[in-house]
Design goal:
This is Cof-type HAD-IIB family hydrolase. It contains 9 helices and 14 strands. By secondary structure, the chain is α/β, with parallel strands linked by helices. It has 2 domains: 147 residues, HAD superfamily/HAD-like (Rossmann fold), CATH 3.40.50.1000; 97 residues, Hypothetical Protein, Haloacid Dehalogenase-like Hydrolase, Chain: A, domain 2 (2-Layer Sandwich).
């Protein structure tokens, strides 16, 4: 048997195809990895409750969620990095003044500061998840919020970036940006897991496609960008596989020698 490794997979555009379906070859490849003794983990910008069904289907209990802010190792919380609450109150005030709705997300749920907004409906609708934020403008008070979603058109986040050094802003949709703690990334969350496992860098692998995968793809020794990846993600990765719709995961795992 080959030496044990850990493989981190992004979800959207990586594990799931453009229609948010799990390709059969991907599912089979994941189970083959596990059967051969490798650790399989997820590294995503999604909230834990947004991919619970996928974890169950693939039998995965180790994951990096919220772009590194909430990390679970074999079913146990390993690392938490919530947003600064005072700064969150301040950015909420600014977003209200600009008519930019905001959603607060913890490990269990998400709530919006407005009852309804077309930007929220359109952008979250693209994720094709059952959860949808209900209205609770005070949800962030007295609890750990690991990520917020700020809904604004492209480049409108610039004024927030100038005002709030406590946060990083990562656009994931033409109408929405992730708001995470400054310096937070999938790479940092992954580092908590790889340190716990004590695996050498050459036994660490990662697959991704988006802008929020760049640090992960740069940091991990054996990184693979999907054929459908953003050009900057491809630039950051050591390898580029085929499109997610063209057996990209299977091809990539064969490319790096984890599968035959």
């Amino acid at each position: 048997m080959t030496e044990k490794s850990i493989v981190f997979f992004d979800i959207d555009g990586t594990l799931l195809d453009h229609q948010k379906n799990l390709p059969a070859t991907t599912k089979e490849a994941i189970f083959t990895l596990k059967d051969e003794g490798h650790e399989v983990a997820i590294a995503t910008g999604r909230a834990p409750f947004m991919f619970a069904d996928l974890r169950k289907e693939l039998g995965i209990d180790t994951f990096v969620s919220y772009n590194g802010q909430y990390v679970v190792f074999r079913g146990e919380v390993l690392f938490e990095n919530p947003l600064n609450n005072a700064a969150l109150q301040s950015i909420t005030d600014m977003s209200v003044a600009n008519n930019h709705p905001i959603v607060y997300m913890d490990h269990e749920d998400m709530k919006a500061n407005v009852p309804h907004h077309d930007f929220i409906v359109e952008s979250i609708g693209t994720l094709k998840v059952e959860h949808f934020p209900t209205h609770d403008p005070d949800y962030f008070k007295g609890r750990n919020i690991y990520q917020s979603l700020l809904f604004c058109e492209e480049n409108e986040e610039t004024s927030y970036e100038k005002e709030y050094s406590e946060f990083d802003f990562v656009r994931w949709h033409p109408l929405s940006v992730d708001v995470i703690p400054a310096g937070g990334s999938k790479a940092i969350g992954i580092g908590k897991i790889t340190k716990k496992l004590g695996l050498a860098k050459e036994n660490q692998y990662a697959f991704g496609d988006g802008l929020n995968d760049i640090e992960m793809l740069r940091e991990i020794t054996n990184s693979v960008a999907m054929g459908n990846a953003h050009p900057l993600a491809k630039e950051a990765a050591k390898h580029v596989t085929t499109d997610v719709d063209k057996d990209g995961i299977l091809q990539g795992l064969q490319m790096v020698g984890l599968l035959k």
